[in-house]
Design a protein that fits this description.
The relative contact order is 0.25. The strands form 2 sheets. An 8-stranded antiparallel beta barrel has the order 1-2-3-6-11-10-9-8. The chain is globular, with a radius of gyration of 14 Å. By secondary structure, it is mostly beta strands. Strand 9 and strand 10 form a beta hairpin. Helices cover 5% and strands 57% of the residues.
Amino acid sequence: MPRYALLRHECPSEYKPSHWDLMLEVGGVLATWELRELPAAWANALHLNVIEAGAPGNVTRLPDHRLDYLDYEGPVTGGRGSVSRISGGSFQILESTPDTLTGVLSGETLSGEFKLTRVADSDFWNLDV
């Protein structure tokens, strides 16, 4: 089964705001989305402060990442901060089109269905959990 990772990316203030990276193993790379806030259901499952959570909403599609990030924690090259692994496990794709990805996470702390839907020919996607 393909794997997933949820990373916390702590960024230096001059780079961009700190955020979460959702990474899904697809076709030998990690399809990656940047989340400024976690959906409340995920924050609750991770026992995080409610301040760190938000409503499901727009996330940004980033370039694909190397599979190494499935297990990596530490500094990111180029002075772009550091990442820590928050959750990981496997996932199953239920539906995949160029504009929609629906799946089920089976992880250490996150489990259940999710749906990513692209917003009209952009890098922005809606995340529903």
